[in-house]
Amino acid sequence: MTLEEIADFIGINCQEKKEITGLNTLLDSNENQLTFLENKKYLSDLKNTKAAAVLVTSENASEVPNGTIALICDEPYLNLAKISKLFAPNVVEMDGEKPLIGGGTKVMPNVYIGKDSVVGSDCTIMAGVFIGDNVKIGNNTIIYPNVTIYRDCVVGNDCIIHAGTVIGSDGFGFANTKDGKYIKIYQNGNVTIGNDVEIGANCAIDRAVFKSTIIEDGARLDNLVHIAHNCKIGRGSILTGQVGLAGSTILNAYVVMGGQSATAGHLEIAPFTTIAARGGVTKSITEPKKSWAGFPLFEHKQWLKLQGKISNLLK
Amino acid sequence: MTLEEIADFIGINCQEKKEITGLNTLLDSNENQLTFLENKKYLSDLKNTKAAAVLVTSENASEVPNGTIALICDEPYLNLAKISKLFAPNVVEMDGEKPLIGGGTKVMPNVYIGKDSVVGSDCTIMAGVFIGDNVKIGNNTIIYPNVTIYRDCVVGNDCIIHAGTVIGSDGFGFANTKDGKYIKIYQNGNVTIGNDVEIGANCAIDRAVFKSTIIEDGARLDNLVHIAHNCKIGRGSILTGQVGLAGSTILNAYVVMGGQSATAGHLEIAPFTTIAARGGVTKSITEPKKSWAGFPLFEHKQWLKLQGKISNLLK
Amino acid sequence: MTLEEIADFIGINCQEKKEITGLNTLLDSNENQLTFLENKKYLSDLKNTKAAAVLVTSENASEVPNGTIALICDEPYLNLAKISKLFAPNVVEMDGEKPLIGGGTKVMPNVYIGKDSVVGSDCTIMAGVFIGDNVKIGNNTIIYPNVTIYRDCVVGNDCIIHAGTVIGSDGFGFANTKDGKYIKIYQNGNVTIGNDVEIGANCAIDRAVFKSTIIEDGARLDNLVHIAHNCKIGRGSILTGQVGLAGSTILNAYVVMGGQSATAGHLEIAPFTTIAARGGVTKSITEPKKSWAGFPLFEHKQWLKLQGKISNLLK
């Protein structure tokens, strides 16, 4: 789709015929992608963007670097949302190749596997599983019944996905119009799961808005865990029952999160961090190998001491 | 079913042949419905009931208004539970018409659509979806794989329901017998979802005991959200991951609830209220447009101040 | 499998030909089972074991009782994990008898019922349900759509299992290697559910590592409840929405847990205990019929008083 067509779609004028292949963030966009600036906090990213074009208000248009075209509009984020629909793949592909299923793989009844998908060898795909279009699954992986894997997702070798889990559902993203309507930001990324990952029952792992939600090798997720879009779960991390992660949060390697603990979005948590059960993380944790607890969060020892102080109030 | 038959079923005497069509609350019952009074708190409702008959203890029988028949018994709530089974529709209808599927609607394999159900035009019903009997689904709605929609529920136009979500499961309702047995209160209501609603993966939205659990136009629910019976989610409300609502709570328009926040039952929350992540609401909120946090709940600014005071205890 | 073969599998020497039929804890092992001692806390259990053999470090080998063979190794727990795979049944049985379905039972389309399974009479098994191999289901039980019941589990009479719930998924168990790899402990137990149990939508109830996760007669579980491996939910207990139990915790009869409340693992909670919404239990509760709240947990009245004291900090 050309920039001209995109501009036309949102009702602004631009005669550039440049072909745009997708949407992305300021820093991750390549020379064929369109990006946006809504929040002045990211002005420095704007200066470093390599994007073909950027949706930007007139106020910030002068900061757009050479080589990037400014699409000047009043509500860049809302327009990005509208445009995201243009790049959304079909919910169900009509064309494409029959799925490839590797040798030794057992596919039970009532399984759906979409177009252009590949399942490796020696897997077990149990009854009621849905594997969407263009999904790649490695070797020796077990997918338990009634799991749903949305289109374009990737699952590695030697994984176990327990029943009812959903991989690749849409991240929770929308822009507001002035009259209180929400415009969906189509989540055109995917979920990429490494090797030797085990995921419990009835989890929900959202696909990325751009690029990938990532679960690295060796991670272990218990039941009813919620992973929002664009998170990264580092190698060997352990997330126990009912943990919830808001969007774009990065767990580095070997982070352990206790039951019902949670993080806010856009955080980074240092390797070998432990969050106790019910801990609620609202700021990034930069120092590795420490234990934290509570909401607000304290170092675990401090939290225990604080609870003693609090209970003294009863005396 | 006549009142006489109902009375006979619970072992009390009543010779009225009046036809009863269902059960309802004191205030919502019409002249063909049966209601009950267990808790004296609702005596004023009893005085205003239009019900055909009311299950009531002898102590409160004198308060039953003219035109309503008193069915006097020791345990009105327990008897209501027993009677609720008489009005429960079949789990699976044997008779009824084949479902109607609108033009342009794609129904994938391994989908079940029940008797007397109607799916509008231009919908996508993905593999593994269960749509029960007498369900109505509007136009241009996408239902992702392995979603279950129980009988009698209604979903509007332009909705997106993500994989694994359950709509219309029974509300959590039962009465106790004196010897510690629970008698199920059959949940004979439904769930009604408006237009332009998006619901995340692996949510659970219970049907009403009477009437409807309601999700109004434009609402957005993230993953793993729990909505108990008879709640109402107001227009444009946003419920993020792992939020839980207890029964009969009303969110007015544009309420925002952060991750893992929750409400007790039978509350009403004013329009444009924001509940921060982990907030726990135990009283109704009457003033609109305020932000709240914590459990117990405080105004957000007060909560932040309080956390500062609490952490000072460590000094 | 003989002890010699097992020892060989983990690279230690033992020439005993004794046939081993499975793995179990120190106290529950019978004379044909293998057990392990990792933590000195259980030395007294070691002295009382009736196991055929025990994985034990050289340091503790002298405490192994007569009649039990010591398999001396450096990392007993890690070796137990490795051995657990040898005793894991097939994910899907190839042989075995066709399932038996009782009279009056309705099985809807797109249902899978495994080998050697038995479904009683007058049940309703709705579309999309998966019932694994060697499952036993009693009479008059309703299983709603897209429920998954893993192999070897047992469900009683007069039960209702709501849509999307998973019964018998693997407990969250693994041992660490020194180089940061997790070795799965195969969960060779099952889930056993009594009579007259109702379980809400999208719950996850893990199978036991050894023996059974147990849900006793009359229990009621709401939606999105997480029960970890080897828990026992006592008769008539009530677990409301989004409750989570960590492994091996025992609720005695008629325990009530409010919304989003949780327990740590390896606890025992006295009969008729009430845990308020959001309560977090980290120690066993020995006195019956008391009410508790908060995290850390206090008696409910004390917790309310404490919240008053805390809010006074704002003055």
Automatic annotation (TrEMBL), chains A, B, C:
Source organism of this protein record: Arcobacter aquimarinus
Family to which the UniProt record says this protein belongs: Belongs to the transferase hexapeptide repeat family. LpxD subfamily.
Metabolic or biological pathway: Bacterial outer membrane biogenesis; LPS lipid A biosynthesis
HAMAP family registered for this protein in UniProt: LpxD
Gene symbol of the encoding locus: lpxD
Catalytic residues as annotated in Swiss-Prot or TrEMBL: H229 (proton acceptor)
Record's GO cellular component terms: membrane
GO BP annotations listed: lipid A biosynthetic process
Keyword ATP-binding among record annotations: no
EC numbers on record: 2.3.1.191
InterPro entries: Hexapep, LpxD, Trimer_LpxA-like_sf, UDP_GlcNAc_AcTrfase_non-rep
The protein's name in its UniProt record: UDP-3-O-acylglucosamine N-acyltransferase
Function: Catalyzes the N-acylation of UDP-3-O-acylglucosamine using 3-hydroxyacyl-ACP as the acyl donor. Is involved in the biosynthesis of lipid A, a phosphorylated glycolipid that anchors the lipopolysaccharide to the outer membrane of the cell.
Annotated catalysed reactions: a UDP-3-O-[(3R)-3-hydroxyacyl]-alpha-D-glucosamine + a (3R)-hydroxyacyl-[ACP] = a UDP-2-N,3-O-bis[(3R)-3-hydroxyacyl]-alpha-D-glucosamine + holo-[ACP] + H(+)
Oligomer and partners: Homotrimer.
Residues in UDP-3-O-[3-hydroxymyristoyl] glucosamine N-acyltransferase non-repeat region domain copies: 19-86
